[in-house]
Amino acid sequence: MEKRNVSAEQRRVFMRRRIVAGLIALALLAGLVWGVMAGVRSIKASRQAGAQASAAQSSAAAAGKSAAKSGKGEAKDKKSSVPTCTPSDLELALNAPEPSTTVGGYVDFTATMRHKGSRPCLVDGSNASRVLVITSGDQTIWRSDSCPADSRLLLMAQGDHDDQPLRWNADATGDQCQPDENLPRVKQGTYKAQLVLKSNDKISSQPVPLIVQ
After folding, report:
1. Nearest CA among 13, 196, 10 for reference residue 87
2. How far apart (Å, rounded) are the C-alpha atoms in residues 151 and 153?
3. pLDDT tens digits for 3-34?
4. pTM listed for this prediction
5. CB 78 within 8 A of CB 160
6. Residues 6+ apart with CB under 8 A from 109
7. Whether residue 119 is found in the same domain as residue 50
8. CATH number, domain at 147?
9. Where along the chain is composition biased (Basic and acidic residues) (predicted)?
């Protein structure tokens, strides 16, 4: 078989063609890889956008539900507001087992608030609101609200009652709050004790006669 002679120029042409073909193949491969990567990035971005949109919708729905619940709660709170006790709801009673004492002695009482109405109501049962008043004729001698006291708010319903002990040390209060030992003792005579609700003087107990000997 006759051997074909290839000139140097032909070899150079073949070499250039191979190099060009290789570069084209590399370019095609790079383009393919870039296209695949771009497609993957696009899919990821689309999924992330969908997830964010779904999360935003869920948050909005949750916020709407929370607002609706909050609105219902506020309406319920407004409906459940309890009124203040009135004379038709409440009565006061005062009891003194030993209604007499000596000068410098004391008288113990039991102060009772009783709910007599049909609706629940609120009342302050502190000594500064449910006040024990000692009088002599038209003169006020002593009041349990002469010194401040912490509020004692009571929610009372039909049949409820609150009993609290009170003591009068047979002394006289003034315009200012003072320790009991600094108050002047009352003289011998007859006095009267009564419970009065400070916020509504129509709510009061029966008077209890007292004697200081």
Report:
1. 196
2. 6
3. 455 566 666 666 766 776 667 767 677 666 66
4. 0.61
5. no
6. 94, 95, 96, 132, 165, 166, 167, 168, 193, 208
7. no
8. 2.60.40.10
9. 71-80
Domain residues for the domain of 114 are 90-212
Buried b (16+ CB within 10 A) or exposed e, 172-197: bbeeeeeeeeebeebeeeebebbbbb
Q: Are 195 and 177 in the same domain?
A: yes
Q: Are 145 and 114 contacting, i.e. CB atoms less than 8 angstroms apart?
A: no
Q: Whose structure tokens read 């102060």?
A: 111
Give the separation between CA 194 and CA 115, rounded to whole angstroms: 18
Which pair of structure tokens corresponds to residue 17?
Answer: 């063609």
Query: In whole angstroms, how far apart are CA 148 and each of 116, 175, 177?
Result: 28, 12, 8
